Predict the 3D structure of the following.
Amino acid sequence: MNIQIPDHIAAIKSYQPGKTIPQLKEEYGWEKVAILWNNENTLGYSPKSKQAVIDAYESINYYPDPVSRDLKAALAKRYGKSENQIFMGNGSESVLMHAIRAMCTGEDEFLTSEGGFVIIYNWARINNARCVAMPMTDNYAFDLEAIKSRINRNTKVIYLANVNNPTGTMITQQELDSFMQHVPDHILVIVDEAYFEYSEALHPDFPNSLKMDYPNILTLRTFSKAYGIAGVRLGFGIGHEKIIDALNKVKLTFEPTALAQAAGIGALQDTAFLKKSIDNNTRQLQYLYKEFDRLGIRYVPSYANFVMTVWKDKDEVMKVFNALMERGVLVRPLYDPISHCIRISVGRPEENQMCIQALEEIL
Ligand SMILES: Cc1ncc(COP(=O)(O)O)c(C=O)c1O
């Protein structure tokens, strides 16, 4: 084979999909399983969203609305923005990918933190941007001072996750404000708020970057978490019209799909389901903390639908991970520099109890 893969693509480690749940069920013979490894909403999804998808299926032989008019109108109303400040993508990861592609060329740098959402580092490299990741603070948070000090004339995009996945840490209003005041306004600051609906219920002053007056912020939100429709792939970015216009130029013509647009419109109409998801998360996080304290498990307080537990080292992590797996509890062991940690998503009460019972047996 003589095809040459460009160096920046060849250097990327490809995504290694794990076994599927049915494969694992067969292998381990579990009767019950608690799926707590992807920060999904295990309560399910809104019936209104499901019905909207069923209705939309009637027209599935036609291409979707390429500009998601109805969905953008619903979001514009909800957030007090205009439709041309909103960009819809196949999940918020797609919005992030398009933002880097639209913004970065040549020597441009994508500046962020270590210990963040794993996919971002690859998205930067795929788009030929130099990825610079600063060490975290001792408390597993983004070190905004360090990030600020690394800004140089090549810095094009800064990525902040609030809340950060997988550490669960937050950036406060005051920290974000003071950071933004120091960032030159030609640098795009992506503030990823994938867990926002949970976060604002967990912290009375959780910063809402949509309400901050910085034209160089692009806020990312998703339907994959509190709305519970991760499988249809739907997320959005909200920012200045000039930024959104650039994103529209690089997007796939018919992204997101017709079914995803319908699912989103349905999901937005169901505030009762959203509230149920948020309340379950708030209550169940407290349950997990209480039980972790009882079992002497260290953890980092979280502002999202998962919590990062801290262990002695990577060996201990793999022992706990494998022992949980044998008991049908699926959690996420983490990677350097946090390979001594395991992320556990917040599930339904019975799943969380199953997780705690398994941990108690193991310890
Ligand atoms: C911080 C963060 N951003 C973005 C995403 C991607 O979400 P989506 O399903 O919208 O692509 C995730 C998913 O886990 C996440 O944790």
